[in-house]
Amino acid sequence: MNSFRLIATFLCCIAVVFGVLPLCSNAQLDPAFYSKTCPNLNSIVREIVRNFTKIEPRMPAILIRLHFHDCFVQGCDASILLNNTATIVSELQALPNINSIRGLQVVNRIKTDVEKACPNTVSCADILALAARISSVLSKGPGWIVPLGRRDSLTANRTLANQNLPAPFFNLSQLKSSFAAQGLNTVDLVALSGAHTFGRARCSLFVDRLYNFSNTGEPDPTLDTTYLKQLQNECPQNGPGNNRVNFDPTTPDTLDKNFYNNLQVKKGLLQSDQELFSTPNADTTSIVNNFANNQSAFFESFKKAMIKMGNIGVLTGKKGEIRKQCNFVNKKSSELDLAALVSTESFDGDMVSSI
């Protein structure tokens, strides 16, 4: 039996090297992990995400972004959800996250209902992964089989959050380096950037493109002139920068290929988005063109990239813990009123990182 497992692991590693779905990048993750211990998990998560989406159509984009911001900082371990304590410096106050991370109330609501159904069983990290998948499906995007069995971290890392999360002003070289540091390749970069096909961004994140790109005193030349005027109307020069603009002006609440069509006509909202198409001689241009012409190709690459991203640095086995409350490690959970936490967050969200 042991030799069989060794052979299976070896074959799995070969599959990963040659680009097959990285379902087994961590052999302890298993889509059926909760099939006996929490059989109604998917339906609980789906119903809550669906109900919140009826109130706030941007919620699916917010939840996918939340999963991304978690995985890029010490792995997919729900560290982003931890609040400040005497021993924890929260990632929520990192520059890419401060005053912009949303969806916490949805995760807390899911955790409350899951704890009632399956106490001390399901990690907050797995809830984030499932919520991201369900968010994609609810937005007419693809679904995928989510490997499960992650455990929650006992700490957060604000320093890594400031270092690892790609910024909206990154050039292509910086984007590639940021993703490569997480084991993600160029196709993954372009596919995951497609999450900017829905959601909104605050004017302050791209206003320099409209008036003073790279300190030139001129707009970004890669912006379509008609789109530029539209953005200038929505984001006035020297304004407070708090207005929010749809990433995709055509289907702002749908996960589709329009993001790539927008890049082709110079209507990428963030500099980091347009860089994927407008950087001279870039290998990303052909990938953008492929996804713009073939939504199925985009969806397949998006699914693979989301699974691959969801496997970054996961804690399994006896590492970490299963938090009873997602914002605090277990020794603090008994001191909190979870119902109060669920009701305090507003939906006044924006996007900060490049995805």
Automatic annotation (TrEMBL):
Disulfide bonds join 38-118, 71-76, 124-326, 203-235. One of its GO terms (cellular component) is plant-type cell wall. Binds 2 calcium ions per subunit. Binds 1 heme b (iron(II)-protoporphyrin IX) group per subunit. The record marks 65 as: Transition state stabilizer. GO terms for molecular function: heme binding; lactoperoxidase activity; metal ion binding; peroxidase activity. Its EC number is 1.11.1.7. GO terms for biological process: hydrogen peroxide catabolic process; response to oxidative stress. InterPro entries: Haem_peroxidase (IPR002016), Haem_peroxidase_sf (IPR010255), Peroxidase_pln (IPR000823), Peroxidases_heam-ligand_BS (IPR019793), Secretory_peroxidase (IPR033905). Ca(2+) 1 binds at residues 70, 73, 75, 77, 79, 91. This is Peroxidase. It comes from Medicago truncatula. It is an enzyme of class 1 (oxidoreductase). It comes from the Eukaryota. Its cofactor is Ca(2+); heme b. Residues 1-19 form the signal peptide. PANTHER family: PEROXIDASE, PEROXIDASE 72-RELATED. It catalyses: 2 a phenolic donor + H2O2 = 2 a phenolic radical donor + 2 H2O. Substrate binds at residue 166. Keywords: Calcium, Disulfide bond, Glycoprotein, Heme, Hydrogen peroxide, Iron, Metal-binding, Oxidoreductase, Peroxidase, Secreted, Signal.
